[in-house]
């Protein structure tokens, strides 16, 4: 991990750059796969599954028998852990439902909103190098709470053409309706355009590698909504002299192990913490089965020494990390000034892995600086708030001058007429006999 001490402000942007790859050829490659699946459906999906996942599939949909079999293969302990996570995720997300009041904006003018679930949603669960069954819960449970009608899930098959049992079990627990053995760009294309087997959806959710993220961005230009760009994982940790180096190292490694393009950033206002943290990283890294991924990701990672916590906050807001851990004496004071981050973890006993699995918050979060403009997945991601209004004859009379004047100044006479034709009419029957009712 590169150590940078007291950098000058002009260098911040360079220091905070994310790992790069050639995105021109990436977008071209991804677009070709999207177009092919759009034109040739299941045949193209199977072709790319052979090419990228190295498996030939006759049937791309997971059968009921496979789901039943998977349930037997998941241990009781793991089922209990999944249940605990499910309960907390359910609790946190179901509290995000709010009553939407009816507002009388002026006499006789009633406006309100109704939250209505997006009817068809597609969930992408990454599976290139790790079976992320926790992501199934993060994406499926809010869809279940929102009552989406059709929930389909795509995830890459392994070389035997199978899906990890825990992914299938979690999908059952989260009420997913149909599961397909498709990964990468071909999965995003199948859900965006529909194929003979895969239904077309209205919105696609979920994280993934650079191919998945690029595919989501391309299909969202014209064809389907997406949650957000949620690419390679990242974490930033802010510490002072009170932080425990072993905890800090573990947190940095926890995101580095996701993949070679992950990034971990440590900002310390105590120079004395640098060596102990580096020692802990070396020590802990050796024990990790995924140490090769983590080691590569650490090449993209930095330890930055700054003078003050004010600077640390400023740098963080510029970087906009997916995850931010604050391990300083007065962490609440530091947190109060954070404006750009996906999910914030406070104090020495709040590791980022708690949010990845079981505290109840969602782990599908914006990466690559998108936290400046997007939030992570939440219940609102699965609903649209449709507005309704009802205006009485008196209400319309009160608004009429303003509407007519504004419409005529925009030179839109038909808009103005739609009000004028209603004025001076006899009071409508329903208003004579009933009061306003929703
Ligand atoms: N931001 C978040 O909320 C969040 C959450 C979980 C995971 N993640 C990230 O998701 C990513 C998961 O990546 P992954 O690779 O393990 O799984 P993945 O499922 O995203 O990607 C695997 C698929 O990539 C495609 N692919 C692989 N090589 C290709 C190539 N050369 N050309 C075209 N397509 C190719 C294949 O079709 C394969 O099925 C990690 O980077 C992890 O950090 C992010
Ligand atoms: N940290 C990932 C989001 O960036 C989510 C995850 C799933 N499993 C473990 N971690
Ligand atoms: Zn993680």
Automatic annotation (TrEMBL):
Its cofactor is Zn(2+). GO terms for biological process: L-histidine biosynthetic process. It is an enzyme of class 1 (oxidoreductase). Zn(2+) binds at residues 255, 258, 356, 415. The keyword Calcium does not apply. NAD(+) binds at residues 124, 186, 209. Belongs to the histidinol dehydrogenase family. This is Histidinol dehydrogenase. The lineage of its organism: Bacteria, Pseudomonadati, Bacteroidota, Bacteroidia, Bacteroidales. The gene is hisD.
């Amino acid at each position: 991990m590169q150590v940078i001490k007291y950098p000058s402000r002009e260098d911040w942007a360079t220091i905070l750059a994310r790992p790069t790859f050639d995105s021109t050829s990436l977008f071209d490659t991804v677009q070709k796969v999207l177009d092919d699946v759009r034109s040739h459906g299941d045949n193209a999906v199977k072709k790319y599954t052979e090419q990228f996942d190295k498996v030939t599939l006759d049937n791309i949909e997971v059968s009921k028998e496979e789901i039943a079999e998977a349930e037997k293969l998941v241990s009781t302990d793991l089922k209990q852990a999944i249940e605990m996570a499910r309960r907390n995720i359910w609790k946190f997300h179901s509290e995000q439902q709010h009553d939407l009041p009816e507002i009388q904006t002026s006499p006789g003018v009633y406006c309100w909103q109704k939250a209505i679930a997006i009817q068809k949603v597609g969930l992408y669960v990454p599976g290139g190098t790790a079976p992320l069954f926790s992501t199934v819960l993060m994406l499926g449970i809010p869809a279940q709470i929102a009552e989406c009608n059709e929930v389909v899930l795509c995830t890459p098959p392994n070389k035997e053409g199978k899906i990890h049992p825990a992914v299938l079990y979690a999908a059952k627990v989260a009420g997913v309706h149909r599961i397909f053995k498709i990964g990468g760009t071909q999965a995003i294309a199948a859900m965006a355009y529909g194929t003979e087997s895969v239904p077309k959806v209205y919105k696609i959710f979920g994280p993934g590698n650079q191919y998945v993220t690029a595919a989501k961005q391309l299909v969202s230009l014209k064809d389907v909504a997406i949650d957000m760009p949620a690419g390679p994982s990242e974490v930033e940790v802010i510490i002072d002299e009170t932080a425990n180096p072993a905890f800090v190292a573990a947190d940095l490694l926890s995101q580095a192990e996701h993949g070679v393009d992950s990034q971990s950033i440590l900002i310390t206002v105590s120079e004395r913490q640098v060596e102990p943290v580096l020692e802990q990283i070396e020590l802990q890294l050796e024990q990790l089965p995924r140490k090769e991924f983590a080691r590569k990701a650490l090449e993209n990672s930095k330890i930055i020494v700054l003078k003050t916590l004010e600077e640390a906050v400023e740098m963080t807001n510029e970087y906009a990390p997916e995850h931010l851990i604050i391990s300083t004496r007065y962490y609440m004071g530091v947190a109060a000034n954070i404006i750009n981050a996906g999910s914030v973890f406070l104090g020495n006993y709040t590791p980022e892995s708690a949010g990845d699995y079981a505290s109840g918050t969602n782990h599908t979060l914006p990466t690559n600086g998108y936290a400046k403009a997007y939030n992570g997945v939440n219940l609102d991601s699965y609903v649209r708030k449709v507005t309704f209004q009802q205006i009485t004859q008196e209400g319309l009379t009160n608004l009429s001058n303003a509407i007519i004047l504004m419409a005529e100044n925009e030179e839109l006479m038909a808009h103005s007429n739609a009000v004028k034709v209603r004025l001076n009419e006899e009071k409508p029957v329903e208003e004579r006999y009933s009061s306003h009712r929703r």
